[in-house]
Amino acid sequence: MKNFADMQPAQIRELIRRKEITGPTAGMAKNFTQTNLVILKKEHAFDFLLFCQRNPKSCPVIDVTEPGSSIPRLAAPNGDIQTDIPKYRIYRYGELMEEVADIKDLWEEDMVGFLIGCSFSFEFALMNNGITIRHIEENCNVPMFKTTIPSVKAGIFEGPMVVSMRPIPEQDVVRAVQVTSRFPSVHGAPVQIGNPQSIGINDMNRPDFGERVTIKDGEVPVFWACGVTPQAVALQVKPELMITHAPGHMFITDLQDEKFSVL
Amino acid sequence: MKNFADMQPAQIRELIRRKEITGPTAGMAKNFTQTNLVILKKEHAFDFLLFCQRNPKSCPVIDVTEPGSSIPRLAAPNGDIQTDIPKYRIYRYGELMEEVADIKDLWEEDMVGFLIGCSFSFEFALMNNGITIRHIEENCNVPMFKTTIPSVKAGIFEGPMVVSMRPIPEQDVVRAVQVTSRFPSVHGAPVQIGNPQSIGINDMNRPDFGERVTIKDGEVPVFWACGVTPQAVALQVKPELMITHAPGHMFITDLQDEKFSVL
């Protein structure tokens, strides 16, 4: 197996484009920022961008394509959101219709792509600080929960914040806050520490998305705003057509995670 | 004279609305965030919001009104951008036509207001750290310069970054970087320190906007991205109608500056 971690983003994207990589992208092109993708028609683009602007913790915008263009000019000028994600999800009127390997046949001239920051970026930063990530250890998807924290409405878009949870050893919680605070553009500091009930989470073993992970003695559940929020919110609107990445199958940009650190 | 510094934002806005305050707002409602204002028609709103998103240092968006509404629901739910600024500028096709005390007669149903962060916020933070602000000492407007730093284009909007300059004593430069880095939502860290030529500024005594200030021995000119940038860029497009605040006559929000600190 090739060492995808040490490859450049453009090399990985080329392999994805040639359908030689078809699975999840976690751990590939180390230190480069991976993003969620939401594609909507132009009629919804202003409201959706405004929703993201109003909810920067859950919807940190990394790049937006010009209407009709599938090139993320800032994040990956040689990339193409029609082909460079291993697996896409096609939603019509809010229903998941199919998963596909590219969207060349579906692209239309009034589409706008939103690249939204993802937790991979701050997980690297945590690991660089010696804080291990349980769902990586357990080789599963991060547990995610719908909360009672409302997002700030924008036009037709509204809905609750979705959070991801990582168990953090008690003595590392302060450091985890510091490390992730440096990255406000990729979810930033936690939204809740140690009291899931206060944000409407009653059963830590039943995440709404992803999988459960072990919480060991002496560990505190820490919750971060999650990039699934904008997808969940956009789906509630039941747009005629919405295209996203499939979970874990992210868009790999040319931007380095460290670029998003403010300190 | 009343002590405007200790009044609440809503009280100041009420006095402005009644035309009892007609001058600059610097120093009023201490610790509350003041903003630049740009009003455009909806047809330009997506491109302009995208421009701001792509240029967060010069165009930090604090709030955007829903199309047709003049209420900044997040920044000041009891405020009104038709009346709560002491002096507005009306531009038609890129030309300054007049300055007015309210825009009730000009408001239209397809207008969108953009409240954009202003340097008052980080100046308070600098002063709280014992770093004096020269243009406040000299009781004049901050000197601002067009640079050779290009903004990132979005749709029809493009143009160079405008920066503001503050002379900082050499021994305080590092602290000034630290303090302003905490506030990425209100311009953040400097863009240049000590080498104006490198960003196309050849004569420190001839600012493009505002007024010159004294640079004393042992002081370094430090440059921050400036909220005049989006106005300058929007004007180049020569929109049929654009309304802004007059320089120094800002919109005072209910948000506290400290809220915008990430650490």
TrEMBL record, chains A, B:
Pfam families xrefs: D-Glu_cyclase
EC number(s) reported in the record: 4.2.1.-
Gene3D superfamilies linked: PSTPO5379-like, PSTPO5379-like domain
Top-level division of the source organism's lineage: Bacteria
Alphabetic keyword roster: Lyase
Similarity field: Belongs to the D-glutamate cyclase family.
Stated name of the protein: Putative hydro-lyase ACFFIX_18025
Species name: Metabacillus herbersteinensis
